[in-house]
Amino acid sequence: MRLQDKVCIVTGSANGIGLATARKFVSEEAIVIVCDLDAAQVEAAKSELLASGGRAEGYRVDVSERETVDAMVDSVKRRFGRIDVLVNNAGITRDASLLKMDEAQFDSVIAVNLKGAFNCTQAVAATMVEQRAGAIINTSSISGVYGNFGQSNYSASKAGVIGMTKTWARELGPKGVRVNAIVPGAVATDILKTVPEKILRQVENACWQRRIGQPEELANAYAFLASDEASYINGTTLEVSGGVSA
């Protein structure tokens, strides 16, 4: 198994892409640390993973609040003695056009999507450097590459994630820690349930495969970058969008 006995923290893993990634990781024999904002959803996800025969722990974590991140990381380190993989998946949207977006909408998205990734990475980095081994996978977005109407905050946060990925790859690569980013296109998660049908058709047509991606397809990419099969991949941004940029 590609991730056998690796201790893997996955933020935003109570649903959507994060939960699909947690399922994939346990199927690869990883020890998965489920982290999310809603304690009840964390417990439900953890219970599902355990029932499937996997190994999992669960923590209520707000990635924008450093103290909850540090408490989780300290607990994981005490429990397992190491941290092998961090998937920075937690993210939110608060969409509005530039002329209508208020400061709270902007700040909340930056706090979770950008500072949250910083908080979690800084919290695990020293452990990984000490081990001389580790894989950090950040979640950007096609919106962070090309921008998107009504997403000044989201696009900025996801572009920033790419910048941090490349910086950390330079800083941590010589110390044995790989840092890469996934760039998803549209994926069938709860976020898309609020999108009008007409817009969904436009999104599908923008993809050369003419469909929306599935969370499991993203999970496969995370599992590859987390594994030793990707041992010489560092500082890259892997687009998983069905060919939007082709």
Which features would summarize this protein structure in a list?
single chain; 246 residues; alpha/beta; Rossmann fold; seven-stranded parallel sheet; 8 helices; 7 strands; 48% helix
Distance between the termini: 33 Å
Q: Biggest β-sheet, characterized?
A: 7 strands, parallel
Number of strands: 7
Name the overall outline: globular
N-to-C order of helices and strands:
EHEHEHEHEHHEHHE
* pLDDT < 50 runs, ≥5 residues: none
CATH superfamily label: NAD(P)-binding Rossmann-like Domain
Determine the structural class based on helices, strands and strand pairing: alpha/beta
Count of individual domains: 1
Number of helices: 8
CATH topology-level fold name: Rossmann fold
Strand order of the largest sheet: 3-2-1-4-5-6-7
Radius of gyration: 17 Å
Can you walk through the features of this model?
By secondary structure, the chain is an alpha/beta fold. The protein has one domain (7-187, 215-235): NAD(P)-binding Rossmann-like Domain (Rossmann fold, 3-Layer(aba) Sandwich), CATH 3.40.50.720. The protein is 48% helix and 16% strand. The protein has helices at residues 16-27, 39-51, 66-80, 103-131, 142-146, 152-172, 197-206, 215-226; strands at 7-11, 31-36, 55-60, 85-88, 134-139, 177-184, 237-240. A 7-stranded parallel β-sheet has the order 3-2-1-4-5-6-7, sandwiched between helices. α2 (39-51) links the parallel β2 and β3. The chain is globular, with a radius of gyration of 17 Å.
